[in-house]
Design a protein that fits this description.
The chain is about 25% helix and about 15% strand. The chain is of the alpha+beta class. β2 (about 35) and β3 (about 40-45) form a beta hairpin.
């Protein structure tokens, strides 16, 4: 397979309406780096712990005692649904 790619710096990244947990804006800027998973042919821009915990934060369950899904409760650094999103969905953790 052949192909070309382009990397451009300086572009503004909008992550949407999320809350940063366990990190500041400067921390996110420092963590934002390109990394490659050559085996699975995937490109990532954030460290795996932020990705994993963000997935946990958005995986919710109304029947769980913690309010989170089967992946468990997020910890450390992650992006969480904004306060407005939590209230709109009918819950606040």
């Amino acid at each position: 397979m052949d192909g070309t790619g382009r990397i451009q710096t300086g572009a503004v990244i909008n992550l949407g309406n999320v809350s940063m947990v366990g990190m500041t804006r400067r921390d996110v800027q420092a963590a934002y780096q390109i990394r490659f998973d050559d085996a699975n042919k995937v490109v990532y821009f954030l460290p795996q712990d932020i990705i994993d915990n963000t997935i946990k934060a958005f995986s919710t369950s109304a029947t769980s005692t913690t309010g989170y899904g089967s992946l468990g409760v997020p910890s450390g650094r992650y992006f969480a649904p904004s306060q407005q999103q939590r209230l709109h969905s009918g819950g606040d953790r």
